[in-house]
Amino acid sequence: MDDVEFVQWYGPWSPLTVDQVVDLLQAFDRVWWIVGGQAIERFTGVPRPHEDLDVVVLRSDAGLLLSLLAEAGYHAWANSSGSLTPMLDKQELPSHAGQIWIRRHALAPWEVDFGVGDERDGAWVWRHDRNVAMAVADATWVDEHGVRFARPEIVLAHKARWRQQKDDEDFDAAWPMLDRHARGWLRDNVTRMYPDHPWLDRMA
Fold it and tell me: Which residues are bridge partners to 115 per DSSP?
């Protein structure tokens, strides 16, 4: 589905900035972190346009997030593989939902895409390979302003599945800046999951 088709089916996006998300989540006293292209941009300092803003919360904290969003005047929708369900009257998030999209009302654009992170024994579990699990502190880093972001090698491993132009651009920007451990982790996981991936020549 291209961008035009997406808007025709789901409506437009007008994403909040990182600072606006920080303000929105001031009362959310649980861990959360920014993923996707915004996390790569914060790590590399290389700007590019972003059509959305992706934030992750743990599944055990999703109910608290829904309450906070309702109090802030947002309509929240559970997203399960593209099927959207309105979270009316602070309903419990369906177990199959992997995202929460928010907007002010039906005629307003979407503002934030909250990913719902799975957990096992207190650790974050990677949705693309449930054998990969780690403490949130190991999967993220915190910038000088106190905002938590996904580690770039984890973001790139996620992006390797899709390989859109923006994902290649993020790889080109981040790969030279990764340390030895991060490069090894990314190379090992891409090799295991996508053995014919074009990035592997660069990572050899």
Answer: 56, 99
196 domain residue, yes or no: no
pLDDT at residue 75 tops 90 = yes
Identify the residue whose tokens are 């302003």. Answer: 145
Q: In Å, how far are 31, 44, 49, 162 from 176, measured between CA atoms?
A: 29, 10, 21, 21
Query: Is 204 within a domain?
Result: no
**Structural element, H or E, at residue 57:** strand 54-58
What's the total number of domains in the chain? 1
- Whether residue 57 is contained in a domain is answered as yes
**Tens digit of each residue's pLDDT (9 = 90 or more) over 56-67:** 999 999 999 999
The separation between CA 22 and the C-alpha centre of its own chain, rounded to angstroms, equals 15
Q: Does any domain span residue 77?
A: yes
Range of the domain at 150: 3-191
- Distance between CA 204 and CA 193 in Å, rounded? 16
> From the CB of residue 150, how many other CB atoms can be counted at a distance below 10 Å?
27
CATH number at 94 reads 3.30.460.40
Exposure b/e, 179-192, CB count within 10 A at least 16 = b: eeebeebbbebbee
- Give yes or no for a contact between 150 and 56, defined as CB atoms under 8 angstroms apart: yes
> Is 16 in contact with 25 (CB distance < 8 Å)?
no
